[in-house]
TrEMBL record:
The keyword ATP-binding applies. Signal peptide: none annotated. This is Kinesin-like protein. Belongs to the TRAFAC class myosin-kinesin ATPase superfamily. Kinesin family. KIN-7 subfamily. It comes from Lactuca saligna (Willowleaf lettuce). The lineage of its organism: Eukaryota, Viridiplantae, Streptophyta, Embryophyta, Tracheophyta. InterPro entries: Kinesin-like_fam (IPR027640), Kinesin_motor_CS (IPR019821), Kinesin_motor_dom (IPR001752), Kinesin_motor_dom_sf (IPR036961), NACK_C (IPR021881), P-loop_NTPase (IPR027417). Transmembrane segments: none annotated. One of its GO terms (molecular function) is ATP binding. Pfam families: DUF3490, Kinesin. Keywords: ATP-binding, Coiled coil, Cytoplasm, Cytoskeleton, Microtubule, Motor protein, Nucleotide-binding. One of its GO terms (biological process) is microtubule-based movement. Residues 78-397 form the Kinesin motor domain. SMART domains: KISc. GO terms for cellular component: microtubule; phragmoplast.
Length: 963
């Protein structure tokens, strides 16, 4: 869409004042090279500069301070969100529909709560317009400021969002009219500038992009341009001659757009329409050099969300409605995630063509205003609530708009050369009177111009260098996700590198401060913080394991020592100390949090702080191990002394039982020896008896007892020795871990420095990263929303939906079922749409037949459930539901069917989904089934308690499989 946007620049007369030219060039290069965004057009440089877009007090745009204190500032601004309530339509008036909303002031809309719900809805926005408000006012207060930014080189987007028939097209038509008037009024007044306006227009119909200025070109492809973002291939762009021409083209686009009749709107837009006006303004500034501003204004009229029950859509309208709802669901998800901020993780722009095309307007380089339109009618209250919920999220989304400036370098150089030639010519034909003075002056000028030419070349060279650096940085950033860099990280962590940590840290700091600062910082920036934090986590886990191992070792030691029954106060103290030491160690390792999500810069900083604190903790861990080792040495010494001083016989024999428990420990290094001892002396009592015996038999056992003593002593020493070496080993491992961790800290510090010290461009690298880890509950919620939409699109049994919805709440064990369901439904939906798009001649009646039979099955299912309403719901419950779901007073049977027909019809409204599931669950006695409703039944098939396959989406799959 953006291709061929730029016309060759025409240069008005340029000043010959070298000072001014020089200043302009300095202006031009005063932005770091990484901010000099190179456009796709030859010989032009597009600058993105900070925006100081005027903010009228009336619009009350919320602004947040720039996140980059130094360097060029990028203005961050929240999306301007307004709400327009239209008057009741003749259709609503004739149905005696009630008004359900009040605008209590110019920022607040309140639900009248005619349904007596517990929560009264009050919503506040930048502006709220009541039904009497004319479009001119809506334009002035909710769109003009943003729209006219396009004249100043800032991309702008205005879009209307709302349910079908809420007045989006009506509003956008008025906005476009006003924009055209204002833009041409501005052009008329800006005599010093030249404007080139171009128009392109497209619609997204059933997920197909169509050129509204040339429908014959068929479906257009979306391409990803690394610099320009998503572009539409081969989209026509018309150069606008004047206001009348522009109006005419917009009218043509409107006439080309897909429109159809539904029960809610005679002329319902069945596609999303995007009209893009590109404005390029070149003007002569005081400095006299050419600069152009280039921006686009997108006017977006979305198709409206619709409930099948209300539109009574079938056939082609149903298919259109499904596509509309689906892309709006993606838009809602994108907005919801953007509103949460960086914690939200991946933003699914690519899930629909609409969000791909609008990506830069949603959280990107544009100023955006959204006008949410809604019907005041009570019959649409749920849909209006959805719109307001969308508006609520949208008002939290922040954009970073920049001025897009274009400078034609070739023209500048050419002009300078012309200037030199002109001055030379003047020199050759001097006027007699002032010849000398003029000659000197011209010589001076010539010198200056030469100097400037040199400078210009230098600037060009710098720019090329910066661009190539940027390319390398980008490439590196891409590469960080690949194994090569992971290997590099691993290399950096390897212990073969014997440079001391402090040296390394100093060298890192020095190098970042040196003249080589940029490449180093770039490489640091390219290190994925997630990867670093992941490495730190691994180290911490190993530390925890070491703590546990040390704990086990000390417990063994404790058993070993107590088995000797030293009975000595010193030894008891030693043991107590050892145990408390090891507990401390364990505590330290346990105090390391298992999981910290590091998703944004703030938490990364927190993480760095925590790591810094932990250096002390690790030091104390080392100290404790040192103490443990000392204590062990003491024990060994004590043991040896004891062995030489007093016979251990009695004590050892008495503790035989305890030793055996130690023997069985897998850590015992002398189990075979002790095992022999066990066989030789199986019972304390017996040996005690033996000891006292004076019979020859008893006497014959005396040498055995000595042998046993010796063996016990050796075994005990062996054990202590092996535990000692084990502790030494642990100590070494902790030291290694500390080294490893400090390396990581160094890397994180590098990263921090690179982020803090760098200009906006480098910060962007980090901020733009999409962190892959997303909390499980959010993933589940996301997937469940998709499933709900797919159920709706594939006409899956509502009993199946209910059971699935009620059973799977996001436990870890549910993941597999959710995956299976999602895959199966995605497959089904894809096949349905493929069949839907295929030529009927190729397929005969099959796809239509499959869909029809599913819809029929769903209808039968609803009839079945309607019959159960009177038996499964009490009279009171029924009345309450009729009231709540606005079921008109008609025959009993009809009311029941109407109630059931409304269940599971609004996949975008989670409250509706939950309530529907609860009602269906009651109707089929799902709550009573309790444990019988096993999750496993979802593993293979769509299910239904009554086993009527016709009700399942399954029969649809079977049909498809037979194609
Ligand atoms: N502010 C308003 N004042 C008077 N009439 C309005 C207003 N807004 C909308 N209408 C009328 O309401 C009807 C529906 O409006 P419109 O076609 O603009 O809705 P929409 O949201 O674009 O619907 P869809 O999504 O189905 O295309 C039209 O007849 C339109 O003239």
């Amino acid at each position: 869409m953006a291709s061929n946007l730029l016309l060759p620049l025409t240069i008005p007369k340029i000043t010959s004042n070298p000072k001014q030219i020089h200043k302009l060039i300095l202006d031009f290069v005063s932005f770091p090279p990484f901010l000099q965004h190179r456009s796709g057009f030859n010989n032009c440089m597009v600058h993105k500069m900070s925006v100081s877009a005027p903010v009228t007090p009336a619009t009350k745009i919320r602004r947040t301070p720039s996140s980059t204190p130094s360097g060029p500032r990028i203005a961050e601004e929240k999306i301007l969100v307004t709400v327009r309530i239209r008057p009741l339509t003749p259709r609503e008036l004739s149905a005696y529909d009630l008004i359900a909303w009040d605008c209590t002031d110019e920022n607040t809309v309140v639900s009248r709560n005619l349904n007596h719900e517990r929560h009264n809805g009050t919503y506040t926005f930048d502006k709220v317009f009541d039904p009497s408000c004319p479009t001119r006012k809506i334009y002035e207060q909710g769109a003009r400021d943003v729209a006219l930014s396009a004249i100043k080189g800032i991309n702008a987007t205005i879009f209307a969002y709302g349910q079908t028939s809420s007045g989006k097209t009506y509003t956008m038509r008025g906005i476009a009219e006003n924009v055209i008037d204002d833009i041409y009024a501005h052009i008329k007044n800006a005599m010093e500038s030249k404007f080139v306006l171009k128009l392109s227009a497209l619609e997204i119909y059933n997920e197909t992009v169509v050129d509204l200025l040339n429908r014959d070109s068929g479906a257009l492809r979306l391409l990803d341009d690394p610099e320009k973002g998503t572009i539409v291939e081969k989209l026509t762009e018309e150069v606008i001659k004047d206001a009348q021409h522009l109006r005419c083209l917009i009218a043509t686009c409107e006439a080309q757009r897909q429109v159809g009749e539904t029960s809610l709107n005679d002329r319902s837009s069945r596609s999303h329409q995007i009209i893009r006006l590109t404005i390029e303004s070149s003007h002569r500034e005081e400095s006299g050099c050419v600069k152009s501003l280039l921006a686009s204004l997108s006017l977006v009229d979305l198709a409206g969300s619709e409930r099948t029950v209300q539109t009574n859509a079938d056939g082609i309208r149903l298919k259109e409605g499904s596509h509309i709802n689906r892309s709006l669901l993606t838009l809602t998800t994108v907005i919801r995630k953007l509103s949460v901020g960086k914690k939200s993780g991946h933003i699914p722009y690519r899930d629909s063509k609409l969000t791909r095309i609008l990506q830069s307007s949603l959280g990107g380089n544009a100023r955006t205003a959204i006008i949410c339109t809604m019907s005041p009618a009570l019959s649409h209250v749920d849909q209006s609530r959805n719109t307001l919920a969308f508006a609520n999220s949208a008002k939290e989304v922040t954009n970073s708009a920049q001025v897009n400036m274009v400078v034609g370098e070739k023209q500048m150089v050419k002009h300078l050369q012309e200037e030199v030639t002109r001055l030379k010519a003047e020199l050759l034909t001097p006027e007699a009177s002032s010849s000398k003075c003029l000659r000197t002056l011209l010589l001076e000028k010539e010198q200056k111009i030469q100097q400037m030419e040199i400078e210009l070349n230098e600037i060009k060279r710098e720019r090329d260098l910066a661009q190539s650096q940027l390319e390398i940085a980008r490439k590196l950033q891409k590469d960080t996700k690949e194994p090569v860099i992971q290997n590099q990280v691993a290399k950096r962590l390897s212990f073969s590198d014997h440079i001391s940590i402090s040296n390394r840290r100093t060298s890192v700091r020095k190098s970042t401060q040196s003249t080589q600062r940029k490449p180093l910082r770039q490489s640091a920036t390219c290190m994925d913080p997630c990867m670093l934090v992941h490495e730190i986590r691994k180290v911490e886990m190993r530390q925890r394991q070491l703590g546990e191992e040390a704990n086990r070792a000390l417990e063994l030691l404790h058993k070993e020592v107590s088995s000797h029954r030293l009975g000595n106060q010193d030894a008891a103290e030693t043991i107590a100390k050892l145990l408390s030491d090891i507990k401390d160690m364990h505590g330290i390792s346990n105090s390391i949090p298992e999981e910290i999500e590091v998703k944004d810069k703030a938490s990364l900083k927190e993480e760095i702080g925590r790591l810094k604190c932990e250096e002390n903790t690790i030091a104390s861990l080392e100290e404790k191990l040192e103490n443990v080792q000392k204590s062990l040495d003491t024990l060994v010494m004590y043991n040896n002394e004891e062995a030489s001083r007093s016979p251990l016989k009695t004590k050892i024999l008495k503790t035989n039982g305890k030793m055996s428990s130690f023997i069985k420990s897998p850590c015992s290094p002398s189990s075979s020896v002790i095992h022999n001892i066990e066989n030789m002396a199986p019972d304390n009592q017996k040996i005690e008896g033996d000891k006292k015996a004076s019979t020859p038999a008893a006497a014959s056992k005396q040498p055995n007892v000595k042998k046993i003593q010796m063996m016990f002593k050796t075994a005990a020493e062996d054990n202590i020795q092996s535990i000692k070496s084990y502790v030494t080993e642990l100590k070494e491992r902790v030291a290694k871990l500390q080294y490893q961790k400090q390396l990581l800290v160094c890397q994180v510090l590098e990263l921090e420095e690179a982020n803090d010290g760098g200009g906006g461009g480098e910060t962007d690298f980090v901020e733009e990263m999409e962190y892959p880890i997303m909390p499980r509950h959010l993933v589940f919620e996301e997937q469940r929303n998709q499933i709900i939409m797919l159920w709706h699109l594939c006409h899956v049994s509502i009993i199946h939906r209910t059971q699935f919805y009620m059973l799977f709440r996001g436990d870890t064990a549910d993941e597999i079922y959710v995956q299976v369901e999602l895959r199966r439904l995605t497959w089904l939906e894809q096949h349905l749409s493929e069949l839907g798009n295929a030529s009927p001649a190729l397929l005969g009646d099959e796809p239509a037949g499959s869909v029809t039979s599913s819809i029929k099955a769903l209808k039968q299912e609803r009839e079945y459930l309607a019959k159960r309403v009177s038996t499964k719901l009490s009279g009171e419950e029924r009345e309450m539901l009729y009231k709540k779901w606005e079921i008109p007073m008609e025959g009993k049977q009809r009311r029941r069917l109407q109630l059931v027909n409304r269940l599971w019809t609004d996949p975008l409204n989670m409250r509706h989904v939950k309530e529907s599931a609860e009602i269906v669950a009651k109707l089929v006695g799902f709550c009573e089934m309790g444990e019988h409703a096993s999750k496993e039944m979802f593993a293979l098939n769509f299910v239904n308690p009554s086993d009527k396959k016709a009700w399942m989406g399954w029969n649809l799959i079977s049909n498809l499989l037979h194609l």
